[in-house]
Amino acid sequence: MLRRIKGVRYLSSKYFPNEPTSPVVKTASVPGPKSKQINQELGQVYDNKATYFVTDYFNSYGNYISDADGNKLLDVFCQISSIPLGYNNPKLIEAAKSDEMIDAIVNRPALACFPSTNYAQILKDGLLAAAPPGMNKIWTSLCGSDANETAYKAAFMYQHSKIRGNKPFSEEELSSVMNNKAPGASEMTILSFEKGFHGRTFGSLSTTRSKAIHKLDIPAFDWPVAPFPKLQYPLEEFEQENRQEEQRCLNKLEEIIENAPKQIAALIVEPVQSEGGDNHASSEFFQGIRDITKKHNVLFIVDEVQTGVGASGKFWAHEHWNLTSPPDMVTFSKKFQAAGFYYSNPDLQPKDAYRQFNTWCGDPSKAILAKAIYQVIKQDGLVSKTANVGDYLYSGLQQLVNKSDKLKNLRGKNFGTFIAFDCVNADVRNKLLADCRLNGLNVGGCGESGVRLRPTLLFEQKHADLFLNILEKVL
Amino acid sequence: MSNQSVSAKYFPNEPQQPIVKTTSLNVSKQEIEALGKVFDSRSAYFAADYSKSIGNYIADVDGNLYLDVYAQIASIPLGYNNPALIETAKSDKMIRAIVDRPALGNFPGNDLKEICGEILKVAPKGQDKLWSGLSGADANELAFKAVFFWYQAQKRGYKTDFSREEVESVMHNQAPGSPELAILSFERAFHGRLFASGSTTCSKPIHKLDLPAFKWPKAEFPSYKYPLDENVEANKKEDERCLAIVEDLFKTWSIPIAGVLVEPIQSEGGDNHASGEFFQGLRDLTIKHGALLIMDEVQTGVGATGVMWAHERFNLQPPPDLVTFSKKFQSAGYFFHDPEIVPNFAYRQFNTWCGDPARMILAGSIGEQILKNDLVKVADRVGKYLYEKLEKLQSKYPKYLKDLRGKDRATFIAWSLESSEARNQFLNDMKKVGINIGGCAEDSVRLRPTLIFEENHADVLIEAIEKVLSKY
């Protein structure tokens, strides 16, 4: 086991001088008795079936989540990958107490009709400053699912506008659309990948292909799906097989596009399929997608809802690919607290007003929070620090996986802390997650038998050591 | 006026009159143009300065102060910079909710039940549970999902597991796993702009063009003749005609209808009202055909119609199955009562955040203020006062105040003009005399003031309308 280098200065100690030095588990089970009791009461008014444990956010601190029983768990799941800078980060508390925030909370604007005078500046100092290379415009929304759907809307309107040219809407379009029928209602589609997860409202859910339970009983659009590469690990040992697998998937993708009965307006893909099992693919694969989408006039949407905001060792995971030309749209949410999509082509803004529109069009209070998050990340160099900690963590895990007959397919090398591995089966995985919690480690699963690490950007070597020790103990 | 003013209590320094410094809005135009380089700002009326807005008055960056009867498209409940809400925004609870946003479905906070409890204190009659979302469109789509889960569970059995065929077909978006089921909505309805909510929206083509839609049916919503007391028979017939269309769609639509979605007053679509009998008729039809009834109270809810929830006036028996909310409540989601509307298994009605405690805390606080100051009654009282004054104006300017509607619906009032051009001109002219006011449908004007809009504000509004109309 790797041990921490003496004399390392911890940023987490700067923000969280009183962060616990190790987890505290006081109860014989996690969730403990108080957690169970409160959750049962909650169930009277709110669907509580998926509760892990009831949380005490007032006493959660830094990388540690506190539960209702007073247990303090090292958190590498972080609200399903959405806590960027630890619990109760003083910089975010400062932002939350600012006049700007209070104004945004109590005077929530209908942004597109009555934009606040400071909105442009808030965007410029935060969300736009963080924009992926090649992107300089933004549309804001409320969550990842909503971000993807607004991107789909932009894609459909763009493709139809391209066909229509400068002609106005036809009488037939104007009347048929009110009956949800073509030509006013589009017959175009969005292509996604097997095991992709893009959200759970009806349009985004039609592109989600992760698990049946996410989709059952819900009507869906008949949209196309392409295979995503299933890589074999360790990558060094399967270079040729994996290259062939990726080529197979690219060939299949092009075949689907060429034979599509309805025009495919856009394709959406995650840099790492997260919910679907942390499935990676190479830069060459994504460059292949960029080439095929360009060739066939399909817009390329990269869903960075889970992968974005630093955890991969780049601010945006797709920056790892060094594409010859940027994607058409990049969606974000989760760790950024705000949500929406970036783009650069002005034609992705519909020709008329009130088309990409709704009451709130986002939420300035979340954009203010995103600004504070971005500024901390930038000032403290958290992206490169996460890359380093990730390398350290990966090599520690490599040793554990090599030793264990229960773990396999370690992935996320050179990809920050965005690391995952598989257990030999779902039962072993589920037991592992439960045992980890009992030993003070809150960790989440993905796919059928995967374990994913989604710590904060202030997860450092000392936390990695604790994590590795607990995992070793549990194994 | 003998009534004690609530707005004066909250806003002792609220202006008595609008301030119109300039109608050229040069600073606004510059700011909107600058914003437009990075964010679609073409629908902006003006750039607002919220720090200078107070109570019922909204400030723009050119130094104008407008009496606001549009209130962020019906979503400001207690006026700008309400001190009670500022106090909530500064509370430790709120600060924690902002900086530690939880994945509520997995890691609910130990105060979540209390937060829900505050919202449930003002729940519609007959509803005692809730699920939370982020916007009105999201709330409606979550409600659709609940309806579809319920509908399939009726056929399959609540606890019965899925078949292998369902589990496999669903990954290809095909039946039986992705069933062909429909939500019935109405012509001129507005329910949001995501793909499924957009499929139920039927207000204007511009809301829908070029977007894929589910092949879901639309029934006709009653079109009443005004004034109502002179057209009782005709309007009753209209109810019956529309209900017959609904029943016909249940019997003939190619896809089974799992739920009916309706606004108590169609707002975006023109402030179209219907009677209690019409809604009871819908309730009866949904029960007869094994479907659920969703009331969309996104715009009508939270007091502005003189009851907390507009459908409570209909006294439906039994109450609706789901009631969606957003806008004035700042939070969003749906209320319900039947425990079997909670799906049988975990992770079905689920997403990362499952709502936002920061907005839920604010909703609780809004509810508390409404109860404490009896603001539903205030809206009712002021609405009556305002309606009477509008009726008087109507007799003087009938062309510009056609089909005045919203009698006994508090401040939830609207009227029509003779054309879209005339309406737009009117809205524009009102801004020039210091009133921020919104339209709906092609030719209508809707009043959506806050709940602390009182007689003195109504007087300012009436005076401004008269000033504009007297020049026509």
Features:
heterodimer, A: 475 residues, alpha/beta, Aspartate Aminotransferase, domain 2, 4-stranded antiparallel sheet, 14 strands, 36% helix, globular, B: 472 residues, Aspartate Aminotransferase, domain 1, 2 domains, 7-stranded mixed sheet, transferase (chain B), 4NH2But_aminotransferase_euk (chain B), pyridoxal phosphate (chain B)
User: Within the CATH hierarchy, at the fold level, what is the topology of one domain in chain A?
Assistant: Aspartate Aminotransferase, domain 2
Extract low-pLDDT stretches of chain A: none
| Head-to-tail CA distance between termini of chain A | 14 Å
Average pLDDT rating of chain B: 97
Mean pLDDT of chain A: 96
The count of helical stretches of chain A stands at 15
Gross geometry of chain B: globular
**Which CATH-level-2 architecture of the largest domain in chain B?**
3-Layer(aba) Sandwich
Q: Could you say what the CATH architecture of one domain in chain A is?
A: 3-Layer(aba) Sandwich
Largest interface: A-B, 123 and 125 residues
The CATH superfamily of the largest domain in chain B is identified as Type I PLP-dependent aspartate aminotransferase-like (Major domain)
Distance between the termini of chain B: 32 Å
Q: What's the Cα radius of gyration of chain B? A: 23 Å
Beta content of chain A comes to: 5-15%
Which percent bin holds the helix content of chain B?
A: 25-40%
Number of strand segments of chain B: 16
Q: Could you give the order of the helices and strands of chain A? A: HHEEHHHHEHHEHEHEHEEEHHEEHEEEH
Total count of domains of chain B: 2
Can you tell me the residue ranges of chain B where pLDDT is under 50 for at least 5 consecutive residues? none
For the record, the CATH class of the largest domain in chain B is: Alpha Beta
Taking all Cα atoms into account, the compactness measure Rg of chain A is 23 Å
